[in-house]
Amino acid sequence: MAINIEAMRAKLTASKTGNKGQSNSTKWRPTQGDQTIRILPTADGDPFKEFHFHYNVGKNPGIMCPKRNHGEECPICDFASKLWKQGVDGDDATLKTEAKKLFVRKRYYSPILVRGKETEGVKVWSYGKTAYETLLGYVLDPDYGDVTDPETGTDIVLNYDIPGTPGSFPKTTLKPRRRPSILCDEAVGNCDELLESIPEIGDLFDRKTTEEVQALLDDFLSSETSSEKRSSETTKYSTKNASGIDEQFDKFMNNE
Ligand SMILES: [Zn+2]
Predict the structure, then answer these.
(1) Residue ranges in the chain whose pLDDT is less than 50
(2) Cβ distance 204 to 26 under 8 Å?
């Protein structure tokens, strides 16, 4: 029996990216240029969801912050504050930069329908603070109101501009259509079914316990590669007390 090469390729990709197949197809990213989306209403009345992540922890994708998302202890938050404090006390820009990279970041998520691709079903769009505030602004603007309403809501044109210059971020510009429109016509299909198929956005992410986050942080700190800057700092910040965080901090600085 021959091996199914396509299936193997898919498995390899899934393994490399660490993505679950399902969430992969649900998460949506805009492409360069204009696209029209419709934000979908959620049962709880809040279609603009906020989640908190830590990035830059080794090769891990965003790690859900146990503290900001679920009110539990977060070793990364603790470590980052500690690092920041050391940076401030020692007037050390490098430490402050390292700390900032680990600070918790907010991302926003909404269920959407992509116009022209309605048959692909409900997608989840992830966006930043500027887009979030723009969207809230539209909702609170009597000229637009509830842009998610299936009968009287408004499609939104999303322009995504990926700059050619390295180090700069893609820019998202939102502009509501001039006229409201219904969410579903016959071509789009059954509106009730569509609305029922909206996923629980929190389920798209791996919720990690405090212990799991601690393990990821420990891994990261012990595998941190050496850099000249850091090894030169090592002597300056020698170990002073023996709390868990200080030990990790020293490991981080000494690249043990
Ligand atoms: Zn955290």
Answers:
(1) 19-23, 226-256
(2) yes
Buried b (16+ CB within 10 A) or exposed e, 149-164: ebeebbbbebeeeeee
199 in Cβ contact with 26 (< 8 Å): yes
Write the DSSP assignment of 205-238 as a string of letters: S----HHHHHHHHHHHHHHPPP-HHHHHHHTTT-
Per the listing, tokens 């090592």 go with 234
Q: 209 C-alpha vs ligand 1 centroid, how far in Å? A: 11
Helices 75-89 and 93-102, axial angle in degrees (round to 10): 160
Dist. CA 60 → ligand 1 center (Å): 14
CA of 77 to the centre of ligand 1 (A): 4
Question: Which tens digit of pLDDT belongs to each residue from 160-215?
Answer: 999 888 888 889 999 999 999 999 988 888 889 999 999 999 889 999 999 999 99
Q: Minimal CA–CA distance to 37: which of 144, 142, 110?
A: 110
Give distance in angstroms: CA of 105 to centre of ligand 1: 9
**Å from CA of 99 to ligand 1 middle:** 12
44 alpha carbon to ligand 1 midpoint, in Å? 26
